[in-house]
Design brief:
Elements: H1 2-16, H2 21-42, H3 46-53, H4 55-82, H5 92-119, H6 127-147, H7 151-167, H8 173-202
Helix pairs in contact: 2-4, 2-8, 5-6, 6-7, 6-8, 7-8
C-alpha cells in the first residue's frame, strides 16, 4: 500500500509539469529579470538606486502575475483535457522547516559569493551569472529527482554550462547576468513549447456534444 501511495503522489507531481506551463512561467520570470538587469546596467544616479530597490517588487509582482497566467492556461487547456488535480499544501513545522533550510542554503551560497567579490576586487570572472547558473541548475536537479522527469536534468546542465561560459566571457557582471537570464528564458520557453505541443498531440480537446434543442 505505501508503494502504491508513493506512485500516486509521483503521478500527481508529474501531472503538474505535463503541459509545459512550468517552463513557460519560469521562462517569463527569467525574461522579466533579464529586462530588469538590462535596465540596471544602463541607468545611473538616483534612478539606479531606485531600480536596485525595486528588485523585490519585480520578483513578487512578476511572480504573482505569471502564476495567475499559468493557472488560467491550465484551466483553459489542461484541465478540460486530462482533468483537475488538487494538490495538498504542507503547513506548520514541516513546511516551515523546508523553507528555512532552503533559505539557509541559498543565503549561504549568495553570502559566500558576495564575500569572494568583496575580498577579490581584481577577480577576472563574472561571479553572478556563474552563481545563477549553478543555483538554477541545482533547482532543476532537485525537481528532476523529485518528479522523476529527465528533461529537468538537461535544463540543469544547460544552465550550469551557460553560467560557466558567461563567467569567463569577459563581460561585466550585470551585462553577463542579463545575457544569462535572457538565454535561459529562451531555453525554457522553447522547452515549454515542445512539451505543450507533445501534450496537445497526445490529448486532443474533448468533443462537445451538439445541442439538440
Amino acid at each position: 500500500m505505501p508503494d502504491e501511495l508513493k506512485k500516486s503522489q509521483l503521478r500527481a507531481l508529474q501531472y503538474f509539469f505535463v503541459d509545459g506551463t512550468f517552463e513557460f512561467g519560469f521562462g517569463l520570470l527569467c525574461l522579466l529579470l533579464a529586462a530588469y538587469f538590462y535596465v540596471e546596467a544602463h541607468v545611473q544616479g538616483w534612478l539606479s538606486a531606485f531600480v536596485d530597490v525595486s528588485l523585490i517588487l519585480v520578483m513578487i509582482g512578476g511572480g504573482y502575475l505569471i502564476n495567475a497566467l499559468i493557472r488560467r492556461v491550465k484551466e483553459r487547456v489542461t484541465y478540460p483535457r486530462t482533468g483537475y488535480v488538487s494538490y495538498q499544501r504542507e503547513h506548520g513545522i514541516k513546511r516551515g522547516g523546508r523553507v528555512v533550510a532552503l533559505g539557509l542554503v541559498v543565503g549561504g551560497v549568495v553570502g559566500a559569493a558576495t564575500t569572494v567579490l568583496v575580498m577579490n576586487k581584481n577577480i577576472q570572472i563574472a561571479v553572478m551569472p556563474l552563481l545563477s547558473g549553478l543555483l538554477f541548475g541545482l533547482v532543476m536537479v532537485i525537481l528532476g529527482w523529485r518528479a522523476s522527469i529527465q528533461r529537468f536534468y538537461l535544463l540543469a546542465l544547460l544552465s550550469a554550462a551557460l553560467g560557466v561560459v558567461l563567467a569567463f566571457s569577459g563581460l561585466e557582471n550585470t551585462i553577463s547576468l542579463t545575457a544569462y537570464y535572457a538565454a535561459i528564458a529562451v531555453i525554457l520557453l522553447f522547452t515549454g513549447t515542445c512539451v505543450l505541443r507533445t501534450y496537445l498531440r497526445k490529448n486532443p480537446a474533448p468533443q462537445v456534444a451538439p445541442d439538440e434543442h
